[in-house]
Design a protein that fits this description.
Three copies of one chain form a homotrimer. By secondary structure, the first copy, chain A, is α+β, with helices and mostly antiparallel strands. Chain A contains five helices and 15 strands. In chain A, the strands form two sheets. The first copy, chain A, has a seven-stranded mixed β-sheet. Chain A has a seven-stranded mixed barrel with strand order 9-10-14-13-12-11-15. In chain A, a hairpin with a 2-residue loop joins β11 and β12. The longest helix of chain A has 14 residues. Chain A is elongated, with a radius of gyration of 20 Å. Chain A starts with a strand and ends with a strand. At the A-B interface, α1 of A face β2 and α2 of B.
Chain lengths: 250, 250, 250
């Protein structure tokens, strides 16, 4: 079993280790893979962008444990989703949107407390609900064995693209560690001039075209339009992480 | 063998990788688990809080390699501790306090240089003493095979709780990545009003009770009283990480 | 197969996970070891210093996947290097200098596109070229099976030591997480007084000698001269990460 972990727990807290310990105790040969634990606290947006790019690259059978959970302890439901041969476990707050969007997605609410670690802390469902359920799913339990089917799971909260009059109107979502801005416009929708925060961006293929300091637009490695500035940080040059982007579309 | 690593080496230095390489060379099937490497440099306090929460969640047989070692190269002793089915290896500076406090704890000073990696760098015992000894302990060597028994290991340096007149007087120890403040008062000792840094905190069960910006007190996932501020960082609102806390006790 | 990963991708982006997913899919029993992903973006210097200290500590057969790649998408070549029983895969920009410097080093340019992941993103060769090639090398392919031999790979860009008139003239290269400054002067070349940025440093064996705040010079755990300040950060006290260092040499 591969357990891929995506959280906003940070790298200096004990929370990641506690989840890993629960998984190791339940599945001695689990393969733990950190997707990231360093998301901005409670940023569903960052979590969704990371999962959009990385989740389905993992081998079939991988269980994604996703804990960005500002609503822990409230009525928000704990859920599990199966789609495209992968399993996702996490809170029902939209963070599993990419899994739910797949045509074959099936979701359940985790309503079998006998599968949880007890006592369940009202502030740490990652350790007490999500990790134990991920473990039994990884060991082969069927989705219907861990909860009751639902069809109203909270969808992705990423802003939707608007297409109108041969143009696409979208948004930059997050900056990566190089300051490149990832957007919600699929590369296939980009034909002509790209405008970001009112400024023209030159359509290129790699970060190295154009002049130093020039604003560039290219299809990023996750298949979406990406805004970069040659030898610099687009987030810094453009003054933000969330900016309007528009372009001509085919 | 599971080797769980807790250090203050940071995430961009070569030191973590060097320790892992030594473990991998000695125990090809070692399972390396990062507890954290991002503790504030030389903060025994942060290390102790992380271990207090996470150490005993790991499966029996786990070897915890703990290297927060401001005294490396001085007379401070290298030690190993066994308690509750786990093994701990690290400097004798209090950082292994949680292991030493267990009723069945046994400790040895690591005085068998033939087990070390040579030459032993005077500045990196993590690589040259702790990792090699952790490896042989993980492979099954008895505690008495790696050193001589001691009974005077340095205990935890976390501040002790004071109980007096039906009240408990403690301290916030560290902030987690959300700004929640973890304390040294067990949740079971908290009955009535909690006062932190002279301000009243409302006793709740989850982070979502109370009004926005209200100071909250709850039993955290590690079983200790925790101070939070709804939708904000308690550390920021209260202006510090180390603050006096008191409460009525049963 | 051990795959040791060294990148500047940062800890909150999806890029590390994407590379790991490719490796896991290609080599189900791969052992993934993070050397670091938190190098300053595009700092070949930091990457080289980390590899200088850690690369050859790994067990024979380890494949080092090194992706600090400011020139991705340009004409810079993707290469693989074998030396001292280890394999290195990464861009031909000097970052693999330590591997190329070994007397038995052999290098190839990765010119077999049938081994790549397609379509190859022009901005993410780590996922689409380096990881897939690392996987087949780890599974046993010979170096000559993944590319054509070259003898003109870009060497290390770390500044070279100058020796003159019984003195060595070098440089501090990077600060570690404690603020200690690592240099390019081998410890064996240091005999007498050390001068860093015009200031005298006292030659000691450990960080604890000398008075508080005193500038210290010692042989670090990687075998090179290191500059430290007792109970403080040398980088802060001396005001920089890259400073001239000189000393008497035997």
């Amino acid at each position: 079993m591969i357990a891929a972990l995506t959280t906003d727990f940070g790298l200096s807290s004990p929370y990641v280790a506690q989840m890993k310990a629960v998984l190791l105790a339940a599945v001695p040969d689990v393969r733990l893979v950190d997707v990231t634990h360093d998301l901005p606290p409670q940023s569903l947006r960052h979590a969704e962008v990371v999962l959009r790019a990385a989740a389905f690259a993992f081998p079939l059978g991988t269980v994604h444990l996703v804990v960005v959970d500002p609503g822990v302890g409230t009525e928000r439901r704990p859920i599990a989703v199966r789609s495209r041969g992968l399993t996702f476990v996490g809170p029902d707050n939209g963070v599993l949107g990419i899994a739910l969007e797949q045509p074959d997605a099936k979701a359940v609410v985790l309503d079998r407390p006998e599968l949880f670690r007890h006592p369940v802390s009202p502030t740490f469902h990652g350790r007490d609900i999500f990790a134990p359920v991920a473990a039994v799913l990884g060991k082969g339990l069927a989705l219907e064995d861990v909860g009751s089917a639902i069809t109203d799971a909270v969808p992705s909260r990423l802003p939707k693209l608007r297409r109108e009059g041969g143009r696409s109107y979208g948004e930059t979502l997050v900056a990566d560690s190089f300051g490149n801005l990832l957007t919600n416009i699929p590369g296939a929708f980009v034909k002509g001039a790209v405008i970001v925060a009112g400024k023209s961006a030159r359509l290129v293929r790699t970060y190295h075209e154009g002049a130093q300091g020039e604003i560039l637009a290219l299809t990023g490695s996750d298949g979406y339009l990406e805004i970069a500035v040659r030898d610099s940080s687009a987030a810094t040059v453009l003054g933000g992480e969330i900016l309007p982007v528009e372009c001509e579309s085919p």
